[in-house]
Structure formats: structure tokens, C-alpha cells
Amino acid sequence: MDNNCKIGIFDSGFGGLTIFKCIKELLPEYDYIYLGDNARTPYGVRSFETVYQFTTEGVDFLFKKGCRLIIIACNTASARALRSIQQKWLPKHLHYSLFPFLRVLGVIRPTVEDISKFTKNFNVALWATPGTVKSESFALEINHFAPNINLIQTPCPLLVPLVESGELEGAGVDYFISKYWQQTINQDIINTTNVDTLLLACTHYPLLLPSIQKLLPLNIKILTQGELVSESLNDYLKRHPEMSCKLSKNSSVLFYTTDQCDYFNNLARIFMGEKISSQIAKIN
Ligand code: DGL
């Protein structure tokens, strides 16, 4: 019987660590494998087909490492690949015939399920990669869970490269944050609304949180996804004991990267607040 299964966390690079950190804090007893596709990041400016291909390769790698519940901790990959993976790719996967309880989950639905709790005037701004904005995935989910919300979306293509280069503060970072906020406000004026909440709908952006908080008006509530996704996973595991009983609980964590381990270890240590020792992943 397969009862030694791990939880896999997949991201295009470092950003998924902002989700994983919260998951690990809330659910420390499980065994995890994190995979960052740093060699091919960013996904946010790539086509649907490319993001789908890269994401299936990452998920496949995690399956082969013994993960049976996989969280795609990347908004772009969740927006562009999750539905096709759940509906088409997974049912045909060899592992699925052997382990029909395999599950792949994303981060968009858990983020928006409770979004109404955070806004008072229902004018919510969203910052994300161009791919996520273009997919309209957040707009569709928000329309489903909170149709009274007026969503103002701004693509922020340069924030991910800044984070992936370890640029988390300074004049360059401030310039782009101010620029994207101005773009948000300009749309807001057109809509004659008044944004009270900014959703950081990209896993990398929480790493810029101190700079964002410094530059935005104090009355704007800034939402990050880590707490929302980890609470949702906790709830999922409670509702699915048939899954949670199969997951091993030795509090172990393995990190894989598709690029240089030293570079990953150094930045990941900052994000996770602990020493990281990654291994190289060959995923295609
Ligand atoms: N992790 C991605 C996301 O949350 C951002 C990084 C990328 O573009 O690959 O959308």
C-alpha cells in the first residue's frame, strides 16, 4: 500500500517559497519536496503552450519523487496549466493508473474564496504577471465567489526578474513599484472607484512587501497568498482523510532546483529563514 507519500510544491523559481514557508509553518508534520524551475523562470511572459509544457514536466518530476499531492505554488502556472493538467493530463498519466488518489491543486481558488472578507468597498486591485492577467483566471474565479467585487488588474512584468536577481529593495525596485501603482490608480480613476485592497497575485511579490508597504498609501490593505493557501490546504486535508492518511509525516523537506544549487541555497535561505541545501533536478 502507498502510504509513504509526500507533498510536492512546484514553482517557476523562488516565489513558491513564500507559499511553502506558510504551509510548512501551519503543517510542519508532513514531508515535502519543493521544486523551483529557476533555469526557465520567468513563466509569466511565456505562452500558454510553454507554461503548460514546463509545468507538466515539473509535476511529473515530483510524482516520480514520490509526491502524491502537488501544489502548483505559482499563479501563472495555475492560471495557464492547472485546469488542463487536472482534466486531461493527469487522468492519462501512468502514475494515475497506479495511484488514482493523486491530486494537483493550484493557488488561485484558495486565494479568492474568502476575498470579500478583506475589502470594505469591494474595489480590489490585483498585481500579477502578464500571463496571469491575460488568462483572466482571477477575474473568472472572483466573478464566481464574489461577483460584487470590481477587479482592477495590472500586469507587473519587471517585478519577478527583480526578485529572481535578489533585488528586493532600493531605488530601482521603488521606481517599478511606484510605476505599477500609478498604472493601477489611473485605471481606478477611469472606473471612478477607490481601491481599498491590493492582492499580490504572484508568489514573488511578497518578497517585495516592505518596499510595497513603504510606497503605497497606508489605508490600502495588501493581501499575500501564503496564509490563504496554507489555510485552504489545511482545510482540504481535514476534508480528505483518505489523502492525509497516505501522506508521510516525518517533517522532512527536500529542495530541488533546475539551475545552480549554490545560487538557490543562498536566496532560498533568505526567503525561508533557514539553511537550505538543494539538489539539481533534471526535468526534461
Ligand atoms: N511564480 C509566478 C507567479 O506566481 C511568477 C514568476 C514567473 O513569472 O515565473 O505568477
Keywords for this entry:
13 helices, 2 domains, Rossmann fold, 284 residues, 4-stranded parallel sheet, globular, 6-stranded parallel sheet, binds D-glutamic acid, alpha/beta
* Bulk shape: globular
Please give the share of residues in helix: 40-55%
Strand order of the largest sheet: 4-3-1-2-9-10
Order of helical and strand elements: EHEHEHHEHEHHEHHEHEHHEHE
Rg calculated over all Cα atoms: 18 Å
Give the CA-CA distance, first to last residue.
29 Å
Tally of alpha and pi helices:
13
Assembly state:
single chain
Largest sheet features = 6 strands, parallel
Can you give a write-up of this model?
- This protein is an alpha/beta fold and 284 residues long.
- The chain has 2 domains: 6-106 and 227-280, Rossmann fold (3-Layer(aba) Sandwich), CATH 3.40.50; 109-225, Rossmann fold (3-Layer(aba) Sandwich), CATH 3.40.50.1860.
- 47% of the residues lie in helices and 17% in strands.
- The protein is built from 13 helices and 10 strands.
- The protein has helices at residues 16-26, 48-64, 75-92, 94-98, 108-112, 130-135, 137-145, 159-164, 171-190, 209-215, 226-239, 241-244, 261-272; strands spanning 6-11, 32-36, 67-72, 103-105, 123-128, 150-155, 197-200, 221-223, 253-257, 278-280.
- The strands form 2 sheets. The chain has a 6-stranded parallel β-sheet, with helices on both faces. Strands 6-5-7-8 form a 4-stranded parallel β-sheet.
- β7 (197-200), α10 (209-215) and β8 (221-223) form a beta-alpha-beta unit.
- The model has no long low-confidence stretch (mean pLDDT 93).
- Bound molecules: D-glutamic acid (DGL).
- D-glutamic acid is lined by residues 11-13, 15, 41-44, 74-76, 129, 132, 160, 202-204.
